[in-house]
Amino acid sequence: MKFIDTIKNVWKIEELRNRIILTLGLLLVYRFGAQVTLPSIDASLLGGFSGNFAGGGIGGLLDAFTGGAFSKASVFALGIMPYISASIVVQLMQIAVPYLQKLQKEGESGRKKINQITRWLTIGICLVQAPSYLAGLSALGVPAEAFIMGQGPMFYVSSVIILVTGCVFAMWLGEKITDKGIGNGISILIMVGIIANLPQSFAQEFASRVFESNGGLIMILIELVIWFVIILLSIMLVMAMRKIPVQYARRTASGEYEKNIFGARQFIPLKLNASGVMPIIFAQAIMFVPSAVASLSSSDMAQAMQATFSDIFGLWYNVVFALLIIVFTYFYTAITVPTNKMADDLKRSGGFIPGIKPGTDTAEYLDRIMSQITLPGSVFLALIAIFPAFVVKLMGIQQGWALFYGGTSLLIMVGVAIDTMQQVNSYLLNRHYDGLMKSGKNRKAVA
User: Which Gene Ontology terms describe the biological processes this protein takes part in (predicted)?
Assistant: First the structure.
């Protein structure tokens, strides 16, 4: 009943209600577009092509991020991933390119210019990925008769234009959800695409266990319990932080009466996993390289390497994958958590960490703490990333359903769900309602 009351409070706020309705409408448009096949391809002949992605593997992983659009040769087949790739490249370039560093310091105007650069880079990446995707359709199982216009220049030109336009339109939908909806538009599009495959994957696992006498309902119950535990652990990983106490010798607080506060104590929150899912995305991109390079050679060693790095549930694939995640976690944390800047800002504001000198000593102390908490955070992140391989090998879970037991899919769903709930909470609290984790009662405004 408390949860129902909270939902009612959400709908009482007209602005929040309109934002939620707009978000749901734009998500429906995105999901509808994911079902629309390219005009030059016969959708009725894509059964074999779609079947190649049903059993997991690298193809299943790519299909999961696009919500099934990749396996349907949809107008949204590239999904939103080119924009994510462009964002990562621009973010890394901000470390080395002085012009981007300058834009980063210009506030809102600089941010708009960086976003514009990201959009143009997204189009450039699409122009590379779209022809590669179209050229690989035949090799992935699309029969020749499915190409209505043949595979000539007209097919490539028209299909590339449609795929690029589809990606740009998906990017626009994400930005509208961020500006006019409940926020986190790009992340929500990715999450919805991942969740779209969940019912079918679970139905296949249920049919395998129950109708094929492969463990029955007991195994389904055990799998759901393990899945729930992994979700709780992922939430702990996303939310966990180390609080560094900070003391201010003197601060001025403006309220009903202005007064001086001596010895006020606050905290600097250092997250256990400050890099989020980015190390997994980086590592996943690197893991595609050995298989692609090995496919260029016909030697026995190259074929063995291709087989090893094409099996995302294999032993050596996951060992290398876990090591890369740990390395990239340290790398990404180092470039995204500016301990020197944090120390300088703290010194300018008159704050200090008890027992630590302001300035260089504070920066070294924060850097040492980040290094200490990043190790368990990176190991925990790596374990969650490779956990699908454990459930496949030890419990015999189908590969499509196993992808939801860890890795990028689960962490994105958990992270986006938490961020979205915080966005909704902020609207409720601003309008004097308790948040989603409270009872949902209308709180009296403080005069």
Answer: intracellular protein transmembrane transport; protein targeting; protein transport by the Sec complex
**What is the mean pLDDT of the segment spanning 420-424?**
78
Report yes or no on 33 lying in a domain: yes
Of 387, 416, 178, nearest in space to 277 by CA: 416
Please tell me whether the overall predicted TM-score, pTM, comes out greater than 0.85 for this model.
no
What pLDDT is recorded for position 162? Answer: 93
CA-nearest of 268, 246, 229, 266 to 353 is 246
- Asked whether 343 and 366 are in contact (CB, 8 A), the reply is yes
Give the DSSP letter of residue 258: -
How far is residue 155's CA from residue 150's CA, in Å, rounded to a whole number?
Answer: 7
How far, in whole angstroms, is CA 354 from its chain's centroid?
37
Alpha-carbon distance 241 to 228, whole Å?
22
In a domain, 408, yes or no: no
For residue 133, being part of any structural domain is answered with yes
Is residue 168 very low, low, confident or very high in pLDDT (cuts 50, 70, 90)? very high
Largest Cα separation within the chain, whole Å, is: 80
Contacts of 48 (CB under 8 A, 6+ apart): 141, 142, 143
- The secondary structure of 131-146 as a DSSP string is HHHHHTTTTTT--GGG
User: Can you list the alpha helix ranges (DSSP code H) found in 136-215?
Assistant: 153-180, 185-196, 198-210
Please name which of 426, 379, 10 lies closest in space to residue 184, comparing C-alpha atoms. 426
Q: So what's the pLDDT on residue 166? A: 92
Crossing angle of helices 108-135 and 81-96, rounded to 10°: 130
How many domains does the structure of the chain reveal? 1
| Residues in contact with 211: Cβ distance below 8 Å, sequence separation at least 6, in sequence order | none
Range(s) of the domain holding residue 161: 13-196
6 C-beta neighbours (distance < 10 Å), count? 20
- CATH number of the domain within which 149 lies: 1.10.3370.10
Q: Is residue 62 one of the residues assigned to a domain?
A: yes
Dist. CA 195–CA 189, nearest whole Å: 10
Instruction: State how far the Cα of 288 lies from the Cα of 283, in Å rounded to an integer.
Output: 9
First to last CA, the chain: 30
Helix (H) or strand (E) holding 392: helix 360-395
In the structure encoding, which two tokens stand for residue 206, read together?
């249920």
